[in-house]
Amino acid sequence: MGKLAFPLDKELTGPDRIVLEILQKEYELHETRPAKSTLDAAEDSDDSDIKHSEIVTPSPEDLQDQEQQAIAYLKKLNDPKSDSFETTVCSTVDDSDIKNPLLRQWIIDPYIRWAKQIVRVETDVIMVTHLLLYFCTSVPSAIYLYVNFHWWHAVLHCVMQGYYMGPFTLLKHQHIHMRGVLSKKYGFIDRLFPYILDPMMGHTWNSYYYHHVKHHHVEGNGPNDLSSTIRYQRDSVWDFAQYVGRFYFLIWLDLPMYFLRNRKPNLALQAGACEVGNYVFLYMMYNFVSARATTFVFLIPLAFMRLALMTGNWGQHAFVDEVEPDSDFRSSITLIDVPSNRHCYNDGYHTSHHLNPLRHWREHPVAFLSQKKQYSDEHAIVFYNIDYFFLTVNLLRKNYEHIAKCLVPMGDQMQLTLDEKVEMLKRKTRKFSEEEIAEKWGKQYAKLK
Question: Which positions are tagged coiled coil (predicted)?
């Protein structure tokens, strides 16, 4: 106890490493702090000086100072007016790590200056990088499959798209919450590119916006949320199959019906029209252009993305507090890992996102650190060294011990043994009965007989 089970990943982003190191030091400080009875015994002993000298612990005040300095530094990283400001150019390498003077002078710095004029927020040069990447690879590759189809090319195209889907989806995530990612001067491109790229990345037109912004964040994983996990046993393969299956085959109907039930007919019409319109487009492309190319360019990505979205959401809302399940702190989790945060726009900070859906992706680490005490007091769950997909996989395998080792204990969690952590996690994956839903959310939300 007192130390995290795994070493910190070398590929963590700078802000993630800062956050995790502070949490780690706090955990170590808690475990190395002697109990009062131990100190009393030492004071009464003849060799108390020796005993005190053996206890070397960092000062809580020093740790608090480090925390405040870290918050100030992270804020400067995001402030274009600060000398410490750093934009994000690509996901694989941090801007500050690109040291080659010729590369910086002739390529990187001119590119950053140009791209900053295109994006809405100066930190988001990476979004221009990604859009250029997609339009220079995915689009030509897809077109060529329709012109001259080869099986080997089709397979490689799917592999490439599979690699792109996560970052693109989280770019879209920022896009739908902020109503765009490019400056107003490029508003037409900002509105147009999703209609070109969405179907190639497995999304149907505008469905992500209607489901995620207009529905999921309104319901917050509650009983009326179509993607809610509370009615499912989150470590059950059968329950997971039902969860994914319903989304796969019925979301085209469920989402418009949800809007109708909530007296939002315009949203129902828009969501239904976009979904059905996309299916008509796929039908036309399959039957009248090229069935083989359409299968690899559109249908396989669609099938994969639907599974990925539900697998991710299952992991994001797998651990729901049995006492206060409607709390954003207690119904979602935080991941400090490489796939979610380095490659997917800090998607690991899901609790932070639910607390403020309009929060910019670069602000999540500093927001988490600024609210760390509240996270601790609210018994929020933080993991590291695991992403949502492997979290879901380990849950379905009931591998709670590994998940518990990935826990970054905060507050009262620091006192738990590994077995106690396992039991805590098991309690939070339990299916809610309709009686419990009526008690926690209200009878109007329960399906009581």
Answer: none
